[in-house]
Amino acid sequence: MKGLFMNDWKWEPPGDQFEKKVRELGKHFTGKGPGRKTFVLIGLVFLLFLVGNTSFYTVDTEQTGVVLRFGRFIGFSEPGLRFKIPLGVDQIYLVKTGRVLKEEFGFRTVAAGVRSTYSKTGLDEESLTLTGDLNVSDIEWIVQYQVSDPYKFLFKIKYPEQTIRDVAEAIVRRIIGNSNVTEVLTTERAELAARIESNLQEVLNNYDIGVRIVTVKFQDVNPPDPVKAAFNEVNEAEQQKESLIFQAREQYNREVPKAKGVAKNTILNAEGYALERINMAKGEADRFTALLKEYRKAPEVMRKRLYLETMEDVLPQVEELYLIDEKGSGALPLLPLRGELKGGKS
User: Fold this and answer.
1) CA–CA separation, 306 vs 327, rounded Å?
2) What are phi and psi of 138, to 5 degrees?
3) Torsion sign across C-alpha atoms 231, 232, 233, 235
4) Torsion, CA 286, CA 288, CA 289, CA 295, rounded to 10
5) How far apart are CA 336 and CA 333, in angstroms?
6) What does pTM read for this prediction?
7) What is the residue-level pLDDT of the chain in tens, covering all 346 positions?
8) Rounded Cα–Cα distance for residues 312 and 322 (Å)
């Protein structure tokens, strides 16, 4: 190594010096010099480091590893520390399958957090959408999706994220274009979002992209700025209308069951009263029939018994009593029996 680094240098002709250095380097690599073992050791250490560094890889909890061997797909790898054949034989692609991914339309998230900030700068063409009644709406929406098959997501389509954006935007414009502006701004948002989600999933399934749509949600739907005030008034009127309808339904649900209960109670009372009167009438008829039967057996005795029972019921209610002789011409003296009884005399 002394000659190699020219520590003891002396002047020699340029041609002779170059030839000498070439011969010294040749000795090192052909084993004729003292540095052969050092170079071999360094080479082995570098090779071991390269093999060790390319033999292991880590898959995070939200990821799935796609393993290719000599460029051919052989399977997936689960989260954790994994081994692979080094030196580029196995290639690993990590895909976030455990996380719900999101594509934003009409706005972009600038800083996410407790209070996220958004920007709409330069996105007017993306958010402005023509409705079926030739009105324009300013629509902001998101598409949330999850990778269900990482191999298809990586290799079936070259740019899967851009494909999802293009298909979602085309479907939104088609469905919004078949609806009127009132439905888009007020009453039919949820239904339109559900239709967009269904159609988007169907198209992506046909593309075999390996993606599952989680949700399609309208973040904000507004009319364009020049007509926003008029549309806000319409929206407020619609909300007031819905509020009055809910109040009427609440009043209906409170009063109608109460009235039904009162009506049912009245009907039950009437039915009970009718049953009571019927039973009483049947009892009286049965009693009369029994008395008639006994009367026919002994008319004179029965007539006297009925008279006495009737007098027994009537006389206690009489205040004054007059006795009249059938053969006489005048009334007998007054017998104030009830007055004396009231006075306490026996």
Assistant:
1) 25
2) -100, 105
3) positive
4) 150
5) 9
6) 0.55
7) 333 333 444 444 444 555 665 566 555 555 544 556 676 677 777 777 777 677 889 999 999 999 999 989 999 999 999 999 888 889 999 999 999 999 999 999 887 766 778 888 888 888 889 888 888 888 999 999 999 999 999 999 999 999 999 999 999 999 999 988 878 877 788 899 999 999 999 999 999 999 999 999 998 888 877 777 877 787 788 889 989 999 999 999 999 999 999 999 999 999 999 999 999 999 989 988 888 888 888 888 888 888 888 888 887 777 766 666 666 555 555 555 555 545 444 4
8) 16
**Spatial CB neighbours of 128, under 8 Å, sequence gap ≥ 6:** 136, 137, 138, 139, 224
> What letter represents residue 229's amino acid?
A
CA atoms of 60 and 58, how far apart (whole Å): 6
